[in-house]
Design goal:
Layout lengths: L1 H30 L7 H8 L7 E4 L2 H4 L4 H8 L3 E3 L7 H11 L7 E5 L10 H15 L6 H8 L39 H16 L3 E6 L8 H14 L3 E3 L4 H4 L16 H18 L12 H14 L2
Parallel strand pairs: 1-2, 1-3, 3-4, 4-5
Keywords: Hydrolase
Protein name: SGNH/GDSL hydrolase family protein
Organism: Dorea formicigenerans
Length: 312
């Protein structure tokens, strides 16, 4: 009986692996760029191999703060947003591992909001196990995306600009100052620290420079969180940019630069963060300028489309 169960489990695992491989081979071109929580998982795989200089990981704060098209137009640096709405740091780790199967970035930007999103609970452990399973069996990642393909439900006009979706809406934040100085720290849950260490070590192993950053967000950030991230960054010599400390320098206006009352930046806010990041990357990293290279003409085409749509 035990032998039969073992054979059955083996067949199920093999079938799942084969199905994952089939979906990747047949549908990968159509899956990339579709709306859905895992579109960046597919999108980074479709990019020309070893063509991306910088990856961005994190939850939705990462998806609304850095625009790869604007960065390209200013510097010729290629970047891709591998963030997801509500991305857990365990997902970030496996997203990065997945991306490194196809890309060899010089820099990884990690947006820090996800460090505080999930606590040391049984749910977090179950999520961690689930994320591990989805990494080794990609068909689980593609579940919602491939349903769109099979049912021919691809929305017209949908466009993801290297993981960055345009969000021009405005809902002002009006509750005033939120970065009040204190020496206290917000504790980072142990399971999140464990995965942050794994990401740091994965970057070190692949000779990738890790940069921590916190997007401007009154709803999510405060000085206690800043102190906690700064302490970790200082311990391991990792550069850290907290844009909540640079609001005047950035010119952030909470009447016009937030999508949803201070939770996320909108297109205007992302433009200001990207403009700052453009200068920072040029001053601190030796990243190549691919403009004019025939291998990257599709980036020029997409950048033109982006400018037509956004004005940036």
């Amino acid at each position: 009986m035990k032998k039969k169960i073992g054979i059955f489990i083996f067949i199920v695992i093999c079938s799942t692996v084969m199905l994952s491989d089939w979906i990747e081979r047949i549908y990968i071109g159509r899956l990339a760029g579709l709306p859905g929580r895992y579109n960046s998982y597919v999108g980074i795989q479709k990019e020309q191999k070893d063509s991306i200089d910088m990856l961005v990981i994190g939850d939705s704060e990462s998806m609304t703060s850095i625009s790869p098209m604007e960065l390209w137009k200013s510097t010729g640096i290629t970047s891709y947003i591998c963030g997801q709405s509500g991305q857990r740091i365990s997902e970030s780790y496996y997203m990065l591992k997945h991306a490194l199967d196809y890309q060899s970035p010089q820099v990884v930007l990690l947006e820090t909001n996800m460090l505080f999103r999930y606590t040391n609970t049984p749910d977090s452990l179950r999520s961690s196990i689930s994320d591990t399973a989805m990494y080794y069996f990609p068909v689980l990642q593609y579940h919602n995306l491939w349903k769109n393909i099979v049912n021919d439900q691809i929305p017209e006009g949908w466009q993801s600009y290297k993981g960055f979706a345009i969000r021009p809406g405005v809902a002002p934040y009006s509750k005033g100052s939120y970065m009040k100085k204190t020496k206290k720290e917000k504790e980072i849950p142990q399971i999140n620290l464990w995965y942050l260490d794994k990401i740091r070590k994965l970057c070190e192993k692949n000779k990738i420079q890790l940069l921590l950053y916190t997007s401007a967000s009154p709803v999510n950030h405060n000085y206690k969180r800043y102190n906690a991230v700064l302490k970790y960054a200082g311990k391991y010599g990792i550069p850290y940019l907290d844009f909540n400390q640079k609001l005047k320098e950035l010119g952030i206006d909470w009447k016009s630069d937030t999508l949803d009352k201070g939770d996320h930046l909108n297109l205007s806010g992302a433009h200001k963060i990207t403009d700052y990041m453009t200068t920072y990357l040029q001053e601190h990293y030796m990243l190549p300028d691919h403009r004019g290279d025939e291998k990257f003409t599709k980036w020029d085409t997409m950048a033109e489309q982006y400018t037509t749509e956004t004005g940036y």
